[in-house]
From TrEMBL:
GO molecular function, one term: fatty acyl-CoA hydrolase activity
Pfam families to which the protein is assigned, alphabetical: 4HBT_2
Top-level taxon in the UniProt lineage: Eukaryota
Matches recorded under InterPro entries: 4-hydroxybenzoyl-CoA_TE (IPR050563), HotDog_dom_sf (IPR029069)
Name of the featured protein: Thioesterase domain-containing protein
Family: Belongs to the 4-hydroxybenzoyl-CoA thioesterase family.
Gene3D superfamilies in alphabetical order: Hotdog Thioesterase
PANTHER family listed in its UniProt record: 4-HYDROXYBENZOYL-COA THIOESTERASE FAMILY MEMBER, NOVEL THIOESTERASE SUPERFAMILY DOMAIN AND SAPOSIN A-TYPE DOMAIN CONTAINING PROTEIN (0610012H03RIK)
Swiss-Prot/TrEMBL keywords: Hydrolase
Length: 156
């Protein structure tokens, strides 16, 4: 993922998949902005929405599923109820059984990005709970390739 200044300049155009989220009163904390833990909840939600809608993942029955092995977030501004968040998603690296996502949170109607985070999934076989020896299945790879930010893939 890029440096802090590079990330601060992210725009919606940097993300091929956008998911809207209407904030809830309970998302706010005592400082009158969305609690940090909600960002992780939203990042997980946009990733899994994409996997289910665009990659054929069916979490209860798929032979493979993604385990989050790394995540972090850079905060540049706050958002609060009743704002509508727009979550941008892209893939920065696609490995044999792993994927590095970049997620940005924007406030609807506001140009500047509020946060940029990263999730790393390792896809494991349901039967063993270990990384898929043959790599992620082709439906996952095809779907994730469509939002890959770089032309070249690299192993994670």
């Amino acid at each position: 993922m890029g440096g802090s200044n590079e990330l601060k300049n992210r725009s919606r155009a940097d993300y091929p998949f956008i998911l809207e989220y209407r904030t809830r009163w309970s998302d706010n904390d005592m400082y009158d902005h969305m609690n940090n833990s909600i960002y992780n909840f939203l990042y997980d939600s946009v990733v899994n929405t994409y996997l289910i809608e665009r990659c054929g993942l069916h979490p209860p029955t798929s032979s493979q599923y993604g385990l989050v092995v790394h995540s972090h977030n850079n905060y540049f501004g706050s958002i609060a109820f009743p704002a509508v968040a727009e979550l941008g998603l892209r893939v920065n690296e696609l490995g044999k059984s792993s994927v590095r996502y970049e997620i940005a949170l924007f406030e609807k109607g506001v140009e500047r990005v509020k946060s940029v985070g990263e999730f790393v999934h390792v896809f494991v076989d349901r039967d063993t709970g270990r990384p898929a020896t043959s790599g992620m299945n082709q439906d996952l790879r095809n779907g994730l390739s469509k939002i890959l930010a770089r032309a070249s893939s690299s192993k994670l």
